[in-house]
Structure formats: structure tokens, C-alpha cells
Design goal:
This protein is mostly helical. 52% of the residues lie in helices and 6% in strands. The radius of gyration is 22 Å and the shape is elongated.
């Protein structure tokens, strides 16, 4: 019989993980020490296996150095066309990041899309739907 089938062993592991999570939340230095050098990267695109790589060896250069815009503010102040014009200046990966950051894609279908125009249209559509829902509660002054 394997250790993993034993309920007491699983409870003990669960307790360890809970204590570890609490310590990470409370102690920033411990969290930094724990996660230092434990970033996972794909070793090969065809392979599904992951290899560990120190953080210092990675080249994490942002695709677009500009901060992500507040798409809701731009839409409410300048309209859909201004938002479309602004978003058109961003690369596809940055647009996907905007979708992720703003929670516009709960089923994560946009991550698989390749064309910028399709992602742009999706962002505009979702933002306009969400903004139209809030118009009933806005003051018309």
C-alpha cells in the first residue's frame, strides 16, 4: 500500500502546505527566498516537460514597455473608436495581457487567438457591453 493512499499521510501533507502558505503570506523575505530561482520554463516547445531555470538566466524583457491603459476610462471618456485606435497600437501579446488583467475572458478562449483584429473586436465588444450595463445607474448631470 502506497503512502499516498493513507488518509493520515494526506492530512499531514495538507497541514504542511497550509503552514507553508501562511508563512509565505506573513514573511516576505521567506517568500523571496523560497521562490528565488524556482521559475519553470518549457525546455522544448514540442515537449510538455518543464525544466527549472534560475530567474537570473531568464530574459524577461516586456513586449511593450508602456503601462497597460485603463480601457474602461478611455471608453467612457472618449468612446469606442478612440479605444480601438489606442489598442491598435499594441502588439497581440499585449492585448491578450490586457484581456487577462481586466478579467474579460473567463473561459480563456482569447489566449488561443492569433489575430490582433479579432482580439481588438472582442475587447471593444466586452467593454461596451459592461459599460452599457452601468449606464442605468449613472447620473445624467
Amino acid at each position: 500500500m502506497s503512502k499516498f493512499k493513507d488518509a493520515d499521510f494526506r492530512k499531514q501533507l495538507s497541514s504542511i502546505f497550509i503552514k507553508l502558505a501562511e508563512r509565505i503570506e506573513q514573511d516576505e523575505q521567506f517568500a523571496h527566498w523560497l521562490f528565488e530561482g524556482t521559475t519553470f520554463l518549457a525546455s522544448d516547445k514540442s515537449s510538455k516537460r518543464k525544466k527549472m531555470s534560475p530567474v537570473s538566466e531568464q530574459q524577461s524583457v516586456p513586449l511593450d514597455k508602456r503601462p497597460l491603459p485603463d480601457i474602461y476610462t478611455i471608453y467612457s471618456k472618449e468612446g469606442a473608436e478612440a479605444l480601438r485606435d489606442l489598442l491598435y497600437t499594441y502588439e497581440t501579446e499585449t492585448l491578450k495581457e490586457m484581456v487577462l488583467e481586466n478579467g474579460l475572458d473567463p473561459v480563456r478562449k482569447v489566449r488561443r487567438w492569433k489575430t490582433r483584429d479579432k482580439i481588438l473586436a472582442y475587447i471593444i465588444e466586452v467593454v461596451s457591453k459592461q459599460m452599457s450595463k452601468g449606464k442605468a445607474f449613472m447620473d445624467e448631470s
